[in-house]
Amino acid sequence: MAQIENFGQTPSKLFNSPHPARKVPQLQVHSSLSTLLTHAQDLKISQAIAAEFEAMQADFNACVTWFGEDPDAAGMGPDSFFSIFLSFAQMLQAADRDNERKRIAEERRIRREAETKKRMDMLASSKQQQKQQQKGLEFSSLKAGDAQDIVKKIRGKRSEEKRKELADHEHMSNQNSDSFCSSSSGIDKKKTTRVPPSIPEAHGDVA
Questions:
Q1: 69: exposed, middle or buried (C-beta count within 10 Å: 0-12, 13-18, 19+)?
Q2: Which of 14, 163, 167, 178 is deepest in the core (most CB within 10 A)?
Q3: pTM, whole model, 2 decimals?
Q4: pLDDT (0 to 100) of residue 34
Q5: How many domains are there within the chain?
Q6: Which domain, by its residues, includes 59?
Q7: What letter would DSSP give residue 171?
Q8: Is residue 12 part of a domain?
Q9: Quick check: 60 and 78 in contact, CB under 8 A?
């Protein structure tokens, strides 16, 4: 009856009652719920991991098939399959380094050839300038009086040629005169040695 009588009291009076309600022990329930929740979370995580693994395996099989390999073949696992790409990447890097070395060597060769050509052009230009300067010096020396020396040399050469021509002409004249004299003396000798005609002797008495 007391409980029925107290039923109509306000909540504040019920909570402030001198006979509080008996508390239920919560420690065992909380421990059981925590264990169940942990197992549920582990199960959920395991299921998520399994789903991700299955999706990854399907993607891997599709990738292997796309590259023309059999995903069910023996030894066609992730390690062996991706090692192909690793080897290819290493070979590509080696080829890239080799090409870079060749490019640097080619650039050095072109630069050396350009420098050599530049030096040769500078040397040829210097020689050309020296020749032009030499010609200028020769021309200026001609202006300074070397022309007279050249004229003297030319005249001396001509005089020498004329003297030689005169000497040759005199020698030829002497030879001609000697031959003429020798031929004339031969003719005189022939004239002096000619036998006079014989006079017939008279025979018989003169009447």
A1: middle
A2: 14
A3: 0.34
A4: 66
A5: 1
A6: 36-76
A7: H
A8: no
A9: yes
